C-alpha cells in the first residue's frame, strides 16, 4: 500500500459506514489521517462504529449534525449510496471540499494497476468472466468493487504484479477524481438510477468518468452498437476498442451468428460458448478483448468460454435434463431485465415469473411474450402476470405457490428443446428475503426434481 500525502495529518470525514465506509475509515486512520466517522445507525446497534472507536477514530452516530463541516474537514469520503442531495454533501461541494468514494482511495493507495468495468447491465458477468480468464492465465488478478469486495481493502494488499479487476457503479464513479484504469470497459448504457442522479445526463457523465483520466497509453473498450457510446468514445484520449454483434470487423473484437472474431480472425465458434444469451455475448466480447490486451492467451480464453456457466442468479445455466435447459435469472427484479432474458434465449421458453407487487408496468415484456409457451407465475403479482400473459396470447398459464411447486409445473408443461427460465421481473421480498435465496430455492428444486426423474 502506498503512503498518501493527500491524507496524512488531514482531517477527513467518512460519511456512512457499511463495508466500504468501515474499510475506508480504517485505512485512512492507518495512513495518518485525523478521521471522523458519521453514520445514521445508532452507536449501540453499530458494531463497525464501535470497532473504529476502539482504534481511536472519532465516531458520531445516530444523526448527521448540520454544522459538522464547520470543523475544518479537508476531504469527505462518502458511502456510494448517499445521494448528492444530502445536506452534508451539498455543503461540502459548496465549500469546494473534495468528495470521494472509496474507489478514489483504492486507486491512490494501490501499487497494482486497475481494469475498470461499468455499464447499466452486464458488469458483474463481465468482471467475473475477465477475472477467470486472467486467473487461469496466471496474471495474478484480484477482483473488487461493486461485486461485493471493497476495492480499497483489496488495494491495501495488492502488489505491482497484480491487476485489480474492478466492477464499478455510477454511484462509485461519480465520486472519483484521479481514478485512471489502464483498461476501461463500458458494456452498455440504458436509462437507470434517475432517482439518484436526477437526469440521464448526470447518470451518463458518471459512467463516463471511468475514462476521463485515461491517456493514449490506455484502452477504452465500448459497445459500438450503441450510438451514445460511439459518440463518447470519439471524445476520449484512450485507444478505443469497440465491440459489435453486427458482424465481423477487421479491427478489434466482433461477432456474427456463428463466430467470435479478434482482429478479423476467427477466435471461437459461438455454439461452443457455454454462457448463453445474446446479451451475454456483449459481456463475452468485452471481457475477451480486455484479457487479450492484458496479454492473455487465446487458448486460455477459449478454455474459459467453453466452461464458464455464468454468475450465480444472472442467466446462470443450471443443467441440461432430457433436452430441457434450466437457467436461473433470479437477479431479474424488473421487466427490463426479464425482457433482456427473453430476448436472449432462442426457441420456446417456459417462464417462471412473479413476486413482490410494486405496480411496475409489464409492457416492456409484450413484444417478447410470443417466445413464451408456458408462464408459471407466483407471488403477489401472480394474478396480474397471468392476466397479462393471456392478453399476450401465451398458450398455457399456471399459478404456483413456492418455488418447488413452480418448478414441478414448469417441468410438467415442458418438452425436449425448451428453455426453462426463472426470470421473475419482480423483487423477491413477498416470499423470499433476497433474490439470492429465491434463486437458490430454484436451483435446489431443479436438482431435486431432475435427479429424482433420471
UniProtKB/TrEMBL annotation:
UniProt keywords, alphabetically: ATP-binding, Cell cycle, Cell division, Cell shape, Cell wall biogenesis/degradation, Cytoplasm, Ligase, Nucleotide-binding, Peptidoglycan synthesis
Gene Ontology terms: cellular component: cytoplasm
EC top class, as a word: ligase
Protein EC: 6.3.2.9
GO BP, sorted A to Z: cell division; cell wall organization; peptidoglycan biosynthetic process; regulation of cell shape
Keyword Isomerase: no
Binding site for ATP: 119-125
Principal cellular location given in the protein's record: cytoplasm
InterPro entries: Mur-like_cat_sf, Mur_ligase_C, Mur_ligase_C_dom_sf, Mur_ligase_cen, MurD
Gene Ontology MF terms in the entry: ATP binding; UDP-N-acetylmuramoylalanine-D-glutamate ligase activity
Residue ranges of domain Mur ligase central in the record: 117-291
Cellular localization per UniProt: Cytoplasm
Pathway: Cell wall biogenesis; peptidoglycan biosynthesis
Keyword Lipid metabolism: no
Residue ranges of every copy of the Mur ligase C-terminal domain listed in the record: 313-426
Catalysed conversion reaction: UDP-N-acetyl-alpha-D-muramoyl-L-alanine + D-glutamate + ATP = UDP-N-acetyl-alpha-D-muramoyl-L-alanyl-D-glutamate + ADP + phosphate + H(+)
Pfam families from the UniProt entry: Mur_ligase_C, Mur_ligase_M, MurD-like_N
Protein family according to the UniProt entry: Belongs to the MurCDEF family.
PANTHER family: UDP-N-ACETYLMURAMOYLALANINE--D-GLUTAMATE LIGASE (PTHR43692)
Role description: Cell wall formation. Catalyzes the addition of glutamate to the nucleotide precursor UDP-N-acetylmuramoyl-L-alanine (UMA).
Protein's name according to its UniProt entry: UDP-N-acetylmuramoylalanine--D-glutamate ligase
Organism name: Planomicrobium soli
Organism classification: Bacteria, Bacillati, Bacillota, Bacilli, Bacillales
Amino acid at each position: 500500500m502506498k503512503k498518501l500525502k493527500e491524507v496524512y495529518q488531514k482531517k477527513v470525514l467518512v460519511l456512512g459506514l457499511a463495508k466500504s465506509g468501515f474499510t475506508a475509515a480504517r485505512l485512512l486512520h492507518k495512513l495518518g489521517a485525523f478521521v471522523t466517522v458519521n453514520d445514521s445507525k445508532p452507536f449501540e446497534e453499530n458494531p463497525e462504529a464501535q470497532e473504529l472507536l476502539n482504534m481511536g477514530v472519532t465516531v458520531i452516530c445516530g444523526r448527521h449534525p448540520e454544522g459538522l463541516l464547520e470543523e475544518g474537514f479537508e476531504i469527505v469520503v462518502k458511502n456510494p449510496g448517499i445521494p448528492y442531495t444530502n445536506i452534508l454533501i451539498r455543503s461540502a461541494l459548496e465549500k469546494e471540499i473534495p468528495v470521494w468514494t472509496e474507489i478514489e482511495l483504492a486507486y491512490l493507495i494501490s501499487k497494482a494497476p486497475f481494469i475498470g468495468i461499468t455499464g447499466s447491465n452486464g458488469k458483474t458477468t463481465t468482471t467475473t468472466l475477465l477475472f477467470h480468464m486472467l486467473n487461469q492465465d496466471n496474471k495474478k488478478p484480484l477482483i473488487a468493487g461493486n461485486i461485493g469486495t471493497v476495492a480499497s481493502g483489496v488495494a491495501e494488499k495488492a502488489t505491482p504484479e497484480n491487476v485489480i479487476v474492478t466492477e464499478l457503479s455510477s454511484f462509485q464513479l461519480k465520486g472519483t477524481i484521479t481514478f485512471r484504469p489502464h483498461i476501461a470497459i463500458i458494456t452498455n448504457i440504458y436509462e437507470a438510477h434517475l432517482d439518484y442522479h436526477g437526469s440521464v445526463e448526470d447518470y451518463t457523465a458518471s459512467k463516463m468518468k471511468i475514462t476521463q483520466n485515461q491517456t493514449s497509453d490506455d484502452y477504452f473498450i465500448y459497445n459500438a452498437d450503441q450510438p451514445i457510446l460511439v459518440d463518447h468514445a470519439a471524445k476520449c484520449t484512450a485507444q478505443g476498442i469497440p465491440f459489435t454483434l453486427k458482424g465481423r470487423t477487421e479491427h478489434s473484437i466482433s461477432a456474427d451468428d456463428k463466430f467470435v472474431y479478434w482482429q478479423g480472425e476467427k477466435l471461437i465458434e459461438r455454439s461452443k460458448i457455454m454462457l448463453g444469451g445474446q446479451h451475454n455475448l456483449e459481456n463475452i466480447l468485452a471481457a475477451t478483448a480486455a484479457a487479450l490486451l492484458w496479454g492473455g492467451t487465446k487458448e486460455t480464453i477459449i478454455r474459459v468460454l467453453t466452461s464458464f456457466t455464468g454468475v450465480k442468479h444472472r442467466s446462470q445455466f443450471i443443467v441440461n435434463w432430457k433436452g430441457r435447459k434450466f437457467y436461473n435469472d433470479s437477479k431479474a427484479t424488473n421487466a427490463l431485465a426479464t425482457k433482456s432474458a427473453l430476448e436472449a434465449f432462442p426457441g420456446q421458453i417456459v417462464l417462471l415469473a412473479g413476486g413482490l407487487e410494486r405496480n411496475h408496468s409489464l409492457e416492456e415484456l409484450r413484444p417478447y411474450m410470443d417466445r413464451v409457451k408456458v408462464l408459471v407465475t407466483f407471488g403477489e403479482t401472480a394474478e396480474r402476470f397471468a392476466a397479462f400473459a393471456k392478453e399476450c396470447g401465451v398458450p398455457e398459464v399456471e399459478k404456483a405457490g413456492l418455488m418447488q411447486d413452480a418448478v414441478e409445473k414448469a417441468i410438467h408443461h415442458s418438452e425436449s428443446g425448451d428453455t426453462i427460465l426463472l426470470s421473475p421481473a419482480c423483487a423477491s421480498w413477498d416470499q423470499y428475503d433476497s433474490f439470492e435465496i429465491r434463486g437458490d430455492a430454484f436451483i435446489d428444486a431443479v436438482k431435486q426434481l431432475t435427479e429424482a426423474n433420471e
